Amino acid sequence: MSIDRKALILQAATKSFVQFGYKATTMDQVSKIANVGKGTIYTFFKTKEELFEEILDKASQELTSVMSRLASEDHTFIQKLFNLLDSILEFRSDHELFVKLAQEVRDIGTVQALEGVKRMEEYALDFLRRQIEQAMERGEVKPCDASVAAFMIFRLYLALTTEWNKGHEPLDKNRIKEHMILFISNGILI
Predict the structure, then answer these.
(1) Same domain for 174 and 137
(2) Which of 97, 131, 132, 165 is the most exposed place for a label (fewest CB within 10 A)?
(3) pLDDT value, residue 1
(4) Do 70 and 39 belong together in one domain?
(5) What is the pLDDT of residues 58-88, one digit of tens each?
(6) Is residue 144 in a domain?
(7) Contacting residues for 20 by C-beta, under 8 A, at least 6 apart
């Protein structure tokens, strides 16, 4: 049985990025974790950045897969929207790589870690935008700029689930949804 060295390297690099963050991960560490020579890594990836990009692509595919499954469920637009928002928040808080990247952004401000976090948000926002556009086509949502609506809904949700908790008693999911519906229903919902 042949060993898929590229998969082994990606697995080791993911482990290193999760454990040490972007800044502290080196190709030497990845080679030790993967138990391959450093030269073997360079046959697949020219730089740490290229390796990181592939790992981010894989994580983005995981997020897209979760969101696609939820979007295909037979629910109203608002139910799908909340399921999608919940899944994005859970992904951000449960996916070890993004927990570490967010911590690194907060503690050190590493540009690549920030770009990784932003990239995941961009995937989520683009997915939400497409869902809003489809809902407009079905007549479930008033005509609007779907990119702006997706951004506002996403940011409102993040603010109520994370920022609010810093200075107030946390809101449970039902209260968050009630407040969001209050703001959205007079806006894009028909």
Answers:
(1) yes
(2) 165
(3) 46
(4) no
(5) 998 999 999 999 989 899 899 999 999 999 9
(6) yes
(7) 29
Distances (CA, A) of 17 to 13, 55, 110, 152: 6, 10, 13, 31
pLDDT at residue 135 is higher than 90: yes
Does residue 2 surpass a pLDDT of 60?
no
Kindly state whether residues 13 and 90 are assigned to the same domain. Answer: no
**Same-domain status, 150 and 178:** yes
* C-alpha separations of 180 from 29, 99, 147 in Å: 45, 26, 18
What's the pLDDT tens digit per position in 149-172? 999 999 999 899 888 888 999 999
Specify the residue for token string 């399921």. 83
- The whole-angstrom separation of Cα 136 and Cα 177 is 21
What domain count does the chain have?
A: 2
Quick one: 87 and 42 in the same domain?
no
Q: What is the pLDDT of residue 144?
A: 92
**DSSP symbol at 172:** P
Predicted pLDDT of residue 163: 87
- For residue 93, what are the contacts with CB-CB under 8 A and spacing of at least 6? 99
Q: 47: how many CB neighbours lie within 10 A of its CB? A: 10
Q: Is residue 190 part of a domain?
A: no
